[in-house]
Amino acid sequence: MISTLGLLILLGARPAAPVWAADPIEKTFSLDDAQRLALLNDAKLLAAEQDVIIAQERVTEAKFLFYPEVGVQASATKYEARYPFSLSGDFRNILLFPDHNAATNDQAATGNLYSGRGYMNMTLFEGGRTLNTLRLAQAAEKQALSNHESVHMDLLLSIKDVFYRLILAQEKAASTAQYLDSVQNFTVQDGLSAWDRVEAEAVLGQARARDDEAQHELDLARLAFLKSVNLELDTPFKLVGELDTKPVDIDIEKAVLWAVELRPELQSETFKAEMDAISVNLAAARRIPTVFLASDYELTDEGFPLRENNWDASLGVRIPFAYDFWSQLREKKAEQRQGQLKRAELQDRVRLEVRQAYENLRYWQKEWPLRESQYRKVQGLYDAASRQSAGALARVRAMGGLLDLKLSYLSALTEHIIARARLERAVGREIAQ
What we know:
Blueprint (H helix, E strand, L loop, with lengths): L3 H8 L15 E3 L1 H11 L1 H22 L4 E13 L3 E2 L8 E2 L12 E17 L3 H59 L6 H35 L8 E3 L12 H11 L1 H21 L5 E12 L6 E11 L6 H62 L5 H36 L6
Parallel strand pairs: 1-6
Antiparallel strand pairs: 2-5, 3-4, 5-7, 7-8
Helix pairs in contact: 2-4, 3-4, 4-5, 4-7, 4-9, 6-8, 7-8, 8-9
């Protein structure tokens, strides 16, 4: 009998391709999809989330400082001694007195000692150091949340920028490819004069270079998009979206006030100022005496069950004498002043960013309708002229001018979309239509 493979060979048929040879599935992304994916995978945002977790755990640790330190300790000791001695400080300096009646000059006394202990230590007063430590941790937590929000906003702006620039690059590549096809069809026509042939070849060379440049920009825009959403750089994908925008009406003075109130960077600096003030208080509190309470209950014997017990309760005062007190206090005050200067500089920079973003938006908001109007006007004239008899070379030149106007209009449209997004980032909130 003839096998199935042999029958296929005889009939000239080819076996079906294996499943693993199929083309990879092309992913489709909208702007929301891209932003959602970036929020899940961005390294800076994930690191900022870990900073928030660290700050929250430090707040929890600071709260535990208000509780007494409680613990238990157990030890078993075997000793050999000729003279009384005490154990090390790790074992409570327990004194041992060997039995000299059982020991000779040549032989030391030996024995076992077992001990169990429960203890409690608690600070009653320390000049607010524990409370300030908690407040410092809470301010650091708020600062971490503000930093996380800042990274989050920067990421959304970055994704919107690369998304719409990729849409623009796709439009440019499609338009230049269509223009190149039209020029190539024109150059193969018969009946061109020698000078028309020269000009036609020159136009063809320019169209080809323009198409290659647009394709190169498209490849770079695709790589930038894949990098921004943290996908493999050879992932096949396509975008779902279009260049569409609307005019925005906003009061610049209100925008500046919003930015001063809402920008997470300024909020972070506010929390930094609070942390600096607390650090000064902590440095000043080093000279305040500390009042503490300690108690122990201990069972000690040479065998089980342990019958002998001791207990104690102590109230103490610790008065510190720090040689570096004034130097550390001056250091913290200098850091506080440094933070005030940085906050003032940051406020000025935020106001400048808002006004720059506003001026950029206002320019493109004025320029984009003008470019669109000019493009629509020339497009109408081109359509009307196409219905009339005209020189083929003049049509190609008109087509090139129309392409320039179209790409200029699309670029202005893209810049207006991105300018609006940058103003929203500078203000710290979305801008209503």
